[in-house]
Amino acid sequence: MRKLPVVILLLALAAAVGGWALQRALQPPPPSMLAPAPQAPAFTAGAPRPDPLLTDLAGKPVRLDQWRGRWLLLNFWAPWCPPCREELPVLRALQQRAGPRGLQVIGIAEDAPDAVRAFLKTTPLDYPVLLPRADHPGLAFGNTRQGLPYSVLIAPDGRMLKRHYGAFTAPELQAWLPPAVQ
Fold this sequence. Notes:
This protein is an alpha/beta fold. It has 2 domains: 3-28; 54-181, Glutaredoxin, CATH 3.40.30. Helix content is 34%, strand content 18%. The protein has 5 helices and 7 strands, in the order H-E-E-E-H-E-H-E-H-E-E-H. A 7-stranded mixed β-sheet has the order 2-1-5-4-3-6-7, covered by helices on one side. The N and C termini lie far apart (90 Å). The model is unreliable at 29-37 (pLDDT under 50).
């Protein structure tokens, strides 16, 4: 009989410690312990384009400078994003039509390299697909909403001209592009 009060006391103590630990785990950390959210610079038409760290699908470093002198349409997307997948045929057709006139579409896939490679096996694209080497490469291009898809038009001299949130339809893309690349 003497063991029963000790067992009850130990169970009550364990429940109290467990409740305290659960309450601490569910309580949000104080603001001083929270990591600051990544900040995107404001998009400014005419600003020079950033030069983020990117790689090709084999892991080789790639710089956007290799397309200097061409119009660039950077499209931030992911294989798991339904609007991104719907937009890909529009971008593929644009690259085929306007590539000979100096436009280069570049896809920047925001997903794991293996997932991107697997997706491209079933849905090949006619333009380069690059991977970020740092988190949130769209932030450097003014994607303040951090949504996908997100597109940026860059002039041959390296100035960012326009941005677009969401998937393009063919008519929207045609109206968005300057006559020089249509």
